[in-house]
């Protein structure tokens, strides 16, 4: 009789060859693993030369001898490319930031030329300081490219040795550039202008020139991550010394990540009538900022500095709001925003609840129309400080809370008349529920189960220790079919 392992192996080997190639190509499977997978079947052994997605990662070679690993990696990539059939490349990813020795220069050059000659569509690779001519001759002139990711290593300034007329990327739609150096102004302008289909631009860790100018009628997604300006002023905004700015009237997503970039976005937002997503993270908010957008649907503010500098927020179409920061900051925002009738989803994570639950109650007034609320407050004040009046969340159907907030919700659940589901994370990574607290709240837990419209109380287990088992025992004593116990990772 065939064993279960043999049965599974037989099912795998009987998969159509086209499907196997697609699985290896469409997934994030590394090329070395894909070749090893092909060795499982004599029929599959003929498939690996037809792979259209190649993902080479030096980290897969970890014998303990870095020098030997680099040699093995280089030999594997070269052999793989030499044995491939003459099929075009959909993806070519080269992850080898430590492969900078001179002895590998010619190999890396051959790999790049190979990818370009085989009409690669998605290209991801490191660019070392000696690669400038390769970028100029091959990469920025690859007409088949749809998506390009370049990690610039040891390049003090990008674009100095690249002539503007050599840039020809007529099909490029997504560009991700990462570097620790200064970006050449002329190169950057020409790069944008010579990518007529570019819709997604991601700049990471660049020193952006003061007078940089991004002008694109079709750019839809713009991200600055950990970028800095090379002059004391901003790259976008108003002021006597501002000569140029960013102009992207079709922009739908704007991500500003990191505090080094001074970005006066107020005027910019007014010129982006189609903007739907605004994400500010670890961002230093400029004085007098205004968030005003008629079509903005998703707003994320994570660990931003100087939130009080926001003068006003007017987002009548907002559907989703995410905030991570101090409780006093979210109170400030509540003053600026007021109630948003269009809001459906809200995710609020507060680092310090020592200001008391009355502050949280005040902040929740802005979320009175929300349907789904994810709430996590670290160190929320004791129940003796809970206010007597709560905001009514009349539309709230789904509530996810951490252990810190459980007491708070137990006191205010009557102000959630349409609540259908509560997801409780009693042991999130910032909180451990005590036995004393559990015994104190046991009666209240039974009380909340009387809520007429409540259908599910999901309790998430993540620790599986004695303390958590005690909680499970208490829940089982209720013998209520509404209670569901599930296993998940720690809540962030």
TrEMBL record:
Domain of life: Eukaryota
Protein name, UniProt field: F-box family protein
Species of provenance: Rhynchospora pubera
């Amino acid at each position: 009789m065939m064993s279960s392992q043999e049965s599974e192996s037989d099912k795998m080997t009987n998969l159509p060859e086209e499907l196997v190639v697609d699985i290896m190509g469409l997934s994030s499977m590394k090329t070395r693993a894909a070749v090893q997978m092909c060795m499982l079947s004599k029929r599959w052994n003929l498939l690996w030369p037809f792979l259209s997605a190649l993902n080479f990662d030096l980290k897969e070679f970890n014998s303990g001898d870095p020098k030997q690993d680099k040699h093995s990696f280089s030999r594997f990539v070269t052999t793989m490319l030499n044995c491939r059939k003459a099929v075009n490349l959909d993806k070519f990813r080269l992850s080898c930031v430590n492969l900078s020795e001179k002895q590998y220069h010619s190999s890396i050059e051959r790999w790049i030329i190979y990818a370009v000659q085989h009409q690669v569509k998605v290209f991801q690779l490191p660019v070392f300081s000696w690669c400038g001519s390769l970028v100029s001759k091959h990469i920025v002139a690859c007409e088949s490219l749809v998506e390009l990711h370049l990690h610039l290593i040891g390049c003090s300034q990008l674009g100095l040795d690249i002539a503007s007329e050599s840039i020809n990327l007529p099909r490029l739609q997504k560009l991700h550039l990462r570097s620790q150096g200064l970006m050449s102004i002329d190169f950057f302008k020409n790069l944008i202008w010579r990518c007529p289909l570019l819709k997604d631009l991601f700049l990471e860790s660049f020193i952006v020139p003061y007078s940089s100018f991004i002008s694109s009628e079709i750019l839809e997604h713009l991200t600055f991550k950990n970028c800095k300006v090379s002059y004391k002023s901003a790259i976008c905004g108003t002021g006597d010394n501002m000569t140029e700015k960013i102009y992207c009237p079709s922009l739908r997503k704007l991500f500003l990540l990191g505090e080094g970039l001074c970005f006066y976005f107020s005027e910019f937002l007014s010129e982006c009538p189609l903007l739907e997503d605004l994400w500010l993270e670890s961002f230093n908010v400029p004085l007098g900022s205004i968030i005003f957008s008629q079509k903005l649907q998703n707003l994320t503010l994570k660990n931003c500095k100087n939130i009080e500098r926001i003068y006003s927020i007017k987002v009548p179409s907002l559907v989703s709001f995410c905030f991570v920061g101090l409780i006093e900051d979210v109170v400030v925002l509540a003053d600026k925003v007021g109630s948003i009738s269009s809001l459906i989803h809200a995710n609020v994570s507060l680092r310090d609840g020592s200001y008391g639950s009355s502050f949280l109650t005040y902040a929740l007034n802005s979320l009175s129309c929300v349907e789904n609320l994810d709430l996590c407050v670290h160190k929320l004040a004791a129940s003796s400080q809970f206010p007597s009046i709560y905001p009514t969340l009349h539309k709230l159907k789904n509530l996810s809370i951490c252990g810190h907030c459980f007491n708070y919700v137990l006191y205010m659940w009557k102000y959630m008349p349409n609540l259908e589901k509560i997801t409780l994370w009693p042991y999130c990574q910032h909180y451990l529920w005590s036995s004393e607290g559990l015994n104190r709240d046991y009666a209240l837990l039974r009380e909340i189960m009387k809520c007429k419209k409540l259908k599910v109380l999901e309790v998430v287990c993540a620790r599986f220790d004695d303390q958590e088992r005690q909680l499970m025992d208490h829940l089982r004593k209720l013998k209520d079919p509404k209670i569901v116990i599930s296993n998940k990772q720690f809540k962030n």
